[in-house]
Amino acid sequence: MEEALDMAGANVFLRQFGSYREELEAYPLWAGSGEVDAVVIADSQEDDSRAKLCLELGLPVVILGGPPVDGASLVDVDNSGGMEMAVTYLSGLGHKVIGRVSGPEHLHHTKSRSVAFDQALERRGVTGLSIEGDYSAASGDLRTREILALPIPPTAIIYDNSMMAVSGLGAAQDLGLKVPYDVSLLAWDDGPACRLASPPLSVLSLDVHELGRTVADALMKTYSGAVQTVVHVPTGRIVQRSSTAGPDGEGSGQSTDPAHVRQI
Fold this sequence. Notes:
Layout: H1 2-7, H2 20-33, E1 39-41, H3 50-56, E2 61-64, E3 73-77, H4 79-92, E4 97-102, H5 108-124, E5 127-132, H6 137-148, E6 156-159, H7 162-174, E7 184-188, H8 192-196, E8 202-205, H9 208-223, E9 230-233, E10 237-240, E11 261-263
Parallel strand pairs: 1-2, 2-3, 3-9, 4-5, 4-6, 6-7, 7-8, 10-11
Antiparallel strand pairs: 8-10
Helix pairs in contact: 4-5, 6-7
């Protein structure tokens, strides 16, 4: 996104807030100062009022990941389709008990993934075990230990981000489990840590560079006064590495749905 906006002569101001209230208090200051011309809002949550507030203040808005808000542009990421793909891939390898370490449930995209996870499991007659994390490495470690300590532990685990997945890999190995022979691990989103892990982690990979360009394009159109823009980002692809196999450790890299799977 920064690269695309830089080419358009715009600067990116990235700000992380300590609380939701702190963020709401910042928007009137931005609008009043004239230093911020448009806003990208990510990680929408239940009863989220940020986009509406920005619009009331005259700040053009692009929402990344939904849900839609009247007057704001939207770059919609297919979280439901991605989770469907992940469950299809793992069940195609033969897994009958699939676990998931999710992100915070108050986030819109987490809820979308959770609904899709449950529906995909039901369609395939697969048992699901879901436990909530917070995207941190610490929660990836803790939640992995908890889910693997269940009376009937999963033979495969989906993580809602790569940081929790890498940490979960360490936790599983610390428990004496061999990945993927004892448990398969699949990360949502790719990154250097996934590729450099031992074994390298299989992932649901999105083209984040293209996603950034899409957000930048929507932002510039919105700022220029274009009508409300809605862009749907295609579902990612499974990138198979060495952390997934059948529940008996066999069949690494094999799936019943090869159209959406790339092996490297």
